[in-house]
Design goal:
The protein is α/β, with parallel strands linked by helices. The protein has a single domain, classed as Maf protein (Alpha-Beta Complex), CATH 3.90.950.10. The chain contains five helices and six strands; from the N terminus they run βαβαβαβββαα. The chain has helices spanning 11-20, 46-61, 95-105, 164-175, 177-192, and strands at 3-6, 26-28, 65-74, 113-124, 127-139, 155-157. The chain has a six-stranded mixed beta sheet with strand order 2-1-3-4-5-6. Strand 4 (113-124) and strand 5 (127-139) form a beta hairpin. Bound molecules: inosinic acid. The site of inosinic acid has 17 residues, from strand 3.
């Protein structure tokens, strides 16, 4: 099976992506590839951060690889936390701290519209391609559910009345931003084969 390095050590994301790619590739994380670096995400857009991550790994390994950068964009907060989703409440903030800050900023705000966005940068045979996926929804008034990660306990996808954390990976895998970005990458793989 063809190997593809996933330029991340996020085990949750790797788990979701393996399921979404239907084991079409042997997806290995940075640690599994023996790469022990922390790639910075210094840019103002998900696209630039995704490119930085995959290009860094490609330059190091010369192997096919991909990265993804995702974020939660809240309409009433002008797109915050966006690229800062992972470190909204501070550099080393936990998901609980990020969620608490988001709820605090949304106190007394009735427009709860939000979307998750994923951008994938794939480098194959030295060429970069970008894929994108968006999942619309809204921010709950309080966290619910134990599944998933990050903002999942607060995000209610459009058409549902439960959070991603309550719906679980089965439902999330059908409708998520990551699912849509991977589906578009899969289309590309199908065209190539
Ligand atoms: P990064 O893409 O590694 O920069 O991380 C983005 C951050 O966005 C994560 O640490 C989470 O806080 C949040 N995030 C991205 N995707 C999801 C998701 O599917 N569910 C919940 N939170 C997410």
């Amino acid at each position: 099976m063809k190997q593809l390095i996933f330029a991340s050590n996020n085990a949750h994301k790797a788990h979701e992506i393996r399921a979404l790619l239907n084991n079409r590739f042997d997806i290995i994380t940075l640690k599994e590839a023996g790469i022990f670096i922390d790639i910075p995400e210094p840019h103002a857009t998900l696209e630039e951060n995704a490119s930085e991550k995959s290009l860094t790994i490609y330059k190091l390994t010369n192997k096919d690889c991909f990265s993804e950068d995702s974020g939660l964009e809240v309409e009433a907060l002008a797109g915050e936390p966006g690229v800062k989703s992972a470190r909204y409440a501070g550099e080393k903030a936990s998901a609980e701290e990020n969620n608490a800050l988001l709820l605090k900023k949304m106190e007394n705000i009735s427009n709860r519209n939000a979307q998750f966005k994923t951008v994938i940068s794939l480098i194959m045979d030295g060429k970069e391609m970008m894929f994108e996926g968006v999942c619309e929804g809204s921010i709950a008034l309080q966290p619910s559910g134990n599944g998933g990660f990050g903002y999942d306990p607060l995000f209610i996808p459009k058409g549902y009345d439960k959070t991603f954390a309550e719906l679980g990976i089965e439902v999330k895998s059908l409708i998520s931003h990551r699912k849509k970005a991977i589906a578009s990458m899969n289309q590309f793989f199908k065209k190539c084969s």
